[in-house]
Design goal:
alpha+beta; single chain
Amino acid sequence: MHKERHDINGWLVIDKPYKMGSTQVVSILKRLFHPKKIGHAGTLDPLASGVLPIAFGKATRTICFVMAGQKIYQFKIKFGTATSTDDVEGDVIETSAVFPTREEIQKVLPRFIGDITQIPPSYSAIKIDGKRAYDLARKGCDVAMKPRRVHIERLRLIDMVENEALLEVVCGKGTYVRSLGRDIAKALGSCGHISYLRRTQCGPFSIQESKTLESLEKIGYSEDLVAGFIPVEAVLTDILELAVTEDEARALSHGQSLKKERLKEGALYKATLNGELIAFIRVQDDVIHPTKVFKQF
């Protein structure tokens, strides 16, 4: 007998455990909450821990806004050994007797701030001719990863213990911290890999508001718990808002366009009725067109 699925809408921030995949977290939450719809924003590798935003119901339609936001990571570079995966999981492919000092690391970091080019790890989820790079790499195929431009807002050294450096990075979408660690080590005349990786922020969500799977397993599903989920609108604070009347909201919910003057041409707006999200709309020639509808009338 199938259990009734709950109509849950909103965000839940999970502190993903080390050695657990992001899809595994979603599977556990499916079992606990039986939601009608669920997804995650910003995949974390199994060897990384920290902030994994989980979207329920209508929030799944706003995942792209979280993934486009800034992320903050703390990570350790272990100098002296490079691995095939650029982290502790891979085989050692290079060694070096060069171990940089704290001062040398701080001196090289400014090179990696701003818009930089990096080559993603061969063991990554990027698709090459329709196949995941990590699947090709595991089969022994020669994986040629294309360089990509990413943005590093801030990068700082937190601590240095023997041959390991603890750093924090604030970065934009598409940044691979494993590539960043590998390239910092190379710039210092050494080699290295990521020995620790923890995400402390993803878009508007921080580690301070996260919950552990262990605590949720103990509580289980409850209406009070779900009522405390972060609202869908929490990820949309940077989007222009257009308050609409009930008649306009009804029209938008049925996919109809509306004539509105003095709106920003080409801009994305969130149409709201008494503060409730009705639809995403775009403006073209003073006509607003619904692109995603969140509430039906």
